[in-house]
Amino acid sequence: SQTIHQWPATLVQPVGSPLSLECTVEGTSNPNLYWYRQAAGRGLQLLFYSVGIGQISSEVPQNLSASRPQDRQFILSSKKLLLSDSGFYLCAWSEQATSGNTIYFGEGSWLTVV
Amino acid sequence: QKEVEQDPGPLSVPEGAIVSLNCTYSNSAFQYFMWYRQYSRKGPELLMYTYSSGNKEDGRFTAQVDKSSKYISLFIRDSQPSDSATYLCAMSDSGGSNYKLTFGKGTLLTVNP
Description:
The structure holds two protein chains of two kinds.
Chain A: E1 3-7, E2 10-13, E3 19-26, E4 32-39, E5 43-52, E6 55-58, E7 64-70, E8 73-78, E9 87-94, E10 104-105, E11 109-113
Parallel strand pairs in A: 2-11
Antiparallel strand pairs in A: 1-3, 3-8, 4-5, 4-9, 5-6, 7-8, 9-10, 9-11
Chain B: E1 4-6, E2 11-14, E3 19-25, E4 30-38, E5 45-51, E6 54-58, E7 61-66, E8 71-76, E9 85-93, E10 102-103, E11 107-112
Parallel strand pairs in B: 2-11
Antiparallel strand pairs in B: 1-3, 3-8, 4-5, 4-9, 6-7, 7-8, 9-10, 9-11
């Protein structure tokens, strides 16, 4: 069966510091990978998605970036965090071959920028 | 008009009640409909998946899709305190952008023992 791991689960970072969130998927090959952010009262916001190694599409302009160095690894980064970057970050995956694309989420990472 | 509308609640019901959760949408191209359950401080988990119009039942949960009205529902029978969570509807079309889902903002449900 497929599993998704995301870390760290919780972090508190000062404004201006860098960020790195990591996500790996097991039990599947060549998945679509996603980074979402969930802010209170604002629902799920798609930040980045990737259909393959090195292929990243950005949905929202911001000071975040994403990379996919390996087939089942997805990384969310920032060089300098802003207060507005606080939120709940979710990595997710889906099968490329599946029409309708059910998306499966990781446990999430709580980021507080202080 | 937002693409997907979902009443945020909160919705509070007694244990054993029948719960009805709903979403409306504006994009007639949506063909795939999902419900996710999200416990506090956890990632959403897929609860129900439906293609096109009709009903789908899984245990105490029933998902309904009415494409003519652009309206989807999730019914929970014999609700339990463990059903207390935020419920998110999600949907996608079947076109080239089918790797994306459009989500509602979620309805917070509390089932009181």
